[in-house]
Amino acid sequence: MNTVRPDKVAAKVIFALDPLEPELVPDPSSIRWLRHWMDERQATLEAVYIASWPSESAELEKTQNEFEIYVRQLGLSDAVKATVLVSKSTSRRKAVQTLVNYLQRSNADFVVVSSHGRAGVGRWMMGSFAERLLGESPVPVLFLSDRHEGMPQLKKILFPTDFSESSKCALELLLNEFQGFGGEIILFHADSPPGVVADTGILGIPVYYPEEVWVERKYQIQREANRIANEVTARGFGIRTVLQEGVLDVVSAIEHVAEGENVDLIAMTSTNRGIDLMIAGGVARQVFRMRRWPVWVCGPEAVEAAQRVSLPQNPRYAG
Predict the structure, then answer these.
(1) What's the pLDDT tens digit per position in 134-156?
(2) Structure pTM?
(3) What phi, psi does 317 have (nearest 5°)?
(4) Please, what CATH class does the domain formed by 12-317 belong to?
């Protein structure tokens, strides 16, 4: 893994809001959690609203004033800047692109959304702003939960991983952004048992790996988990590994561990993009759609952006 960036002091966070869009209206409990977290991290938070109409100075000024009032009424810090961006289209695709462009210009570390989302046919027909953003954002996306109870805190982070390069990159970003985190990171990996279909051939015929292959796979997983844990510990973070075998439903396994460990945040990666944004698929999306925990997700564009930056220094990403 790369070393911590020496110039990293505090995160710059963009909070995407829309008072007129139910999907992006945050729950009061999520606001309390976010404010407490931002205060602990000494992060700078900027609230952003994307107005969908041609820019007319008088109308834009009125919208800016109304948005500033709205942000103050949410109970965020008085230091939170309120910014209105203009998209000359009412489409979600254009709105997402407007926000993505702003994220790049402002050098944000990650973006926060409160996604109530859509389900079923609604998601297929119209999509979700938050989920489309995840597929295009050059920085990780933090999905807030509206079911947080009790005192806001951040003591345990659950990091589900498949040990892929994209997952390792997401963990690297998480460590860089959470410097000084005094809690515990739980590295979680779920694996299927011998006898379960491991792959399908060209004709769709099930292929089963022999027992000895699974034994070797288990050894490799344990070795990789230990290696990552040692590197994370050397960075000053507390970490514990949880490895489960015989898992048929990864999403349910993540939910079960998150409940049992009483985690405060789930962090993971997502590599789905394109048409996958419109359908129910991808472990990360199923996890944040539960809205039971805040979920920090490093999407495909964020992974690729981080890998491009890491390429000269880190031989892990060498071709």
Answers:
(1) 999 999 999 988 765 555 678 89
(2) 0.84
(3) -95, 5
(4) alpha beta
